[in-house]
Amino acid sequence: MAFSTLFHIIAVINFVYGWYYDRAYMTEPDNKFRGFEFGGRMIYLTIWNLTFLCVYFIISLLNDLIGTNEAVPKNSPFIRKIRDYLFAIAAFPFSFNVGLMFWVLMFVDRELVMPKEVDEFFPLWLNHLVHTSIMVFVTIEMFALPRKYPSRKSAMTGIIIIMAIYLGWIFCIKANTNRWVYPILAVLNWPQRIAFFAFTLSVPLVLYFVGEYFNNLVWKSAVEEKTPSKKKKQKQK
Question: Coiled-coil segments, which residues (predicted)?
Fold first, then answer.
């Protein structure tokens, strides 16, 4: 309990400060690369994910204080249910989606995702906070605390809604600025863009199953120990 509370306090400070710094001090020069007045910093999935993590870890901290971290709580409080659901559909899949996609594209050709000129106004520590630490924190969270994953239907619905809203937002930005949020979209033709969008949607869905697999792998035995079997119940009777 003490570890989870301390960890969540650190996580809240890390992500809330990163979110505040990004909103308060990050200004993008109006040049050939950036300068989106429409939408501001919220045009990026990276910042959406940062917002998800701020909300998630605040809720996790509140759950430490007024909820429960038991593997199988008798009466799961509402805040615990929210924590578990947000981890499954947002915190884990989108953190790894953002982190892995960013670093893979950086390795292939950084001009497609973050040209070198961005280094002039985007500090290295903030880059790692929003693209690296996100994966570190949710991985620790996965192994530190048990959770009940939602039904796949419920999870798929939640993820698809988030991605549909964000993809709609990308087209809204394009319609208002005549510019694509991500440089890679400008070099693709329409069939390639459609394939890219389909791939982008599929990644968090696949990552949901990855998270579900590791959650079961790590916590299945703990859950079974806390859940009396039918034979044990019969013996007790």
Answer: none
pLDDT tens profile 88-130: 999 999 999 999 999 998 998 888 788 888 888 889 999 999 9
Query: What token pair was written down for 59?
Result: 């809720």
CA–CA gap between residue 78 and residue 216 (Å, rounded): 22
Please state, in angstroms and rounded to a whole number, the distance separating the CA atoms of residues 71 and 147: 7
End-to-end CA distance of the chain: give it in Å, rounded: 34
pTM, whole model, 2 decimals? Answer: 0.90
Supply 11's token pair: 């996580």
Q: 3-state DSSP call for residue 143? A: helix
Read off the pLDDT of residues 202-224 as tens digits, 9 standing for 90 and up.
999 999 999 999 999 999 887 77
Question: Do 124 and 63 touch, CB atoms closer than 8 A?
Answer: no
Q: Measured between alpha carbons, how far is residue 130 from residues 126, 140, 215 in Å?
A: 6, 16, 24
Tell me the C-alpha distance between 109 and 67, whole Å. 45
